[in-house]
Design goal:
Strand order of the largest sheet: 4-5-6-7-8
Order of helices and strands: HHEHHEHEHEHEHHEHHEHEHH
Number of helices: 14
CATH topology: TIM Barrel
Distance between the termini: 39 Å
Shape: globular
Structural class: alpha/beta
CATH architecture: Alpha-Beta Barrel
Number of domains: 1
Length: 358
């Protein structure tokens, strides 16, 4: 049975939630929205590259038209009370597991397309370009080309090719270049050699969506923190995107606990590449996005107020549109106004230096 837009938009927003939404700040910014790339986006590429690109079937007729049309997008944002959005791709996320030639060609075309998409409303629509990092010099060049078009930092595979772990020296020049640029590198779920590439049924489908996905997010952050990336590049900023946030304070607390246990004077296991608590490193360098995470939202009372950012995930099926403020009220409506402001807009604005105009 096909789910209609009305089904998707109304399935969670009760009258009670809508009433509570009246107390949510009017000015909100989504740190993670998406576009639906048009079917002909890669028609300009050579046939052999097009044939190698694996495009999943996306039923665009069941999704809001604002995924493809920026004029509709802005209207849908106004309907939802969203002042601005940071945008990511949809099926192009899956191309992070392609071979180098196809990936580099496809990302360049996508980056040009999303830059044009954002030109429709340059003070409301902002986007993160995709970076193929098989060749780091190529990735750095593309990041700077995209920055010149007004795009934000770069999106790097969250689960890297097995031969190119994030703990390796392969990425050193990219870390340095991003730090110098002053824009973050992003790690979005479902990018790279991740669980989603494999068919899952029954209990394995849920295992992937929760257990494996969270494991991959935690591993990515662990590898970057504990391999000393931020020690060597103190100006680097990183965003962990669509991994939710409820897991973070517990995991980071555990990292601190075992770091302390293993760095006591005279303890034999002191061979760390970091010189301070993992929590201090994360607090300074890492941002997180969340959408539907009540546990994480309540944790914001004591953790993450300056680094977590709300997102709507429009136009995907689990989006909060057009009842985003009702979702927000359910998750963080009890938090103080200053914390809500940070999480719903200011953290995102400050991270990217956004110039937003209504």
């Amino acid at each position: 049975m096909t789910m209609t837009l009305d089904d998707m938009s109304a399935r969670y927003a009760t009258d009670e939630m809508k009433e509570a939404a009246k107390d949510v700040p009017q000015f909100i910014v989504s740190s993670d929205g998406h576009v639906d790339e048009p079917p002909d986006i890669f028609d300009e590429l050579p046939k052999d590259i097009r044939d190698a690109i694996k495009r999943p079937k996306i039923m665009l007729e069941t999704r809001p038209k604002g995924g493809v049309d920026p004029a509709v997008r802005v209207k849908d944002m106004a309907l939802d009370g969203v002042a601005a959005e940071v945008l990511y791709p949809t099926f192009v996320l899956g191309l992070f597991s392609q071979e180098q030639r196809e990936q580099e060609a496809a990302f360049r075309v996508y980056n040009d397309w999303i830059a044009d998409f954002c030109k429709h409303a340059p003070n409301k629509l902002f986007a993160v370009p995709c970076l193929a990092v098989y060749d780091i010099d190529h990735a750095i060049k593309e990041m700077h080309r995209c920055a010149d078009m007004g795009l934000l930092g770069g999106l790097v595979w969250q689960v890297p090719h097995p031969d190119l772990p994030l703990t390796s020296d392969h990425y050193e020049k990219l870390w340095a270049a991003a730090a110098e640029l002053g824009q973050p590198l992003h790690f979005h779920i479902l990018t790279g050699f991740n669980y989603f590439r494999f068919k899952r049924e029954g209990m394995e489908k849920l295992r992937g969506s929760v257990n494996t996905k969270t494991h991959e997010v935690v591993t990515t952050l662990y590898d970057i923190v504990f391999s000393g990336v931020f020690e060597r590049h103190p100006k680097l900023k990183v965003a962990i995107v669509e991994g939710e946030i409820g897991w973070a304070p517990f995991i980071i607390q555990q990292w601190d606990y075992y770091y302390r246990r293993n760095t006591k004077p005279g303890h034999p296991n002191t061979d760390f590449l970091i010189s301070r608590l993992p929590s201090e490193i994360v607090d300074e360098h890492v941002w997180f996005t969340f959408m539907d995470d009540f546990v994480g939202g309540q944790a914001l009372q004591y953790w993450g107020q300056d680094r977590c950012m709300w997102s709507s995930d429009y136009p995907h099926p689990n989006m909060t549109w057009p009842n985003s403020r009702a979702f927000i009220a359910r998750q963080i409506g009890n938090l103080d106004p200053e914390t809500q402001k940070k999480v719903l807009s200011q953290n995102c604005i400050d991270l990217y230096g956004l110039d937003i105009k209504n």
